[in-house]
Amino acid sequence: MRRFLDRLYDGAGALGAFCVFLIFVLMILAGVGRQMNWHVSGLNDVVSWLCAAAAFFAMAHAFRHGDFVRVTLLLEAVPPKVRRVLDVICLLIAAVSVSYLTYWATSFTDESYEFAEMATGLVVIPIWIPQSTFVIGCWLLLIAMIDELVGVVRGEKPSYQRAIEERHAAGDFSSDV
User: Fold this and answer.
1) Which of 52, 62, 109, 169 is the most buried (most CB within 10 A)?
2) Torsion over CA of 16, 20, 95 and 157, rounded to 10 degrees?
3) Which residues fall within 8 angstroms of residue 23, CB to CB, at 6 or more apart?
4) Prediction pTM value
5) DSSP the chain
């Protein structure tokens, strides 16, 4: 199961990176197209959807690899047992919050599908299609948080803490700047 989840998070991160690459390609195409008098206005809609997709697909991967902004001043100053309790409390709050977000994102997207709502920009497609990237990203983040919570409750060191310690051991302190 661990290998499957790690591959799921890595795959979602790669999908987010691919969305960023597509944004790059479309922005270059739009820039060249404007110079050539092509009609490229609809590309802005697609780029905005890809921006959202890139952010939400990459969240679970970023969370597991210690790339979320976390305030660790208190955690670094307390004994390991207290830190574990605080990690569990924080992960519980985060999991409940993301559960709430995931529920409403799923519900909202389901309503868009049910009512056949269409995008209002220049590219008119069913709006549930770009909204689904938000929902998938929320579900992946929720799974990652529950996965992390289970691990910390079992006594494991959080993956984000391990990732940061590995970077520091390699002399990489760029994430602390």
Assistant:
1) 109
2) 70
3) 47, 50, 51, 54
4) 0.87
5) -HHHHHHHHHHHHHHHHHHHHHHHHHHHHHHHHHHTT---TTHHHHHHHHHHHHHHHHHHHHHHTT-S----HHHHHS-HHHHHHHHHHHHHHHHHHHHHHHHHHHHHHHHHHHTT-B--SSS--BTHHHHHHHHHHHHHHHHHHHHHHHHHHTTPPPHHHHHHHHHHHTT--GGG-
Domain boundaries along the sequence of the chain: 2-176
Question: Taken in order 38, 39, 42, 44, is the CA torsion positive or negative?
Answer: positive
Cα separation, 30 vs 50, in Å, equals: 15
Between CA 163 and CA 6 the distance in angstroms is 13
CA-CA distance, 13 to 74, in Å (whole number)?
29
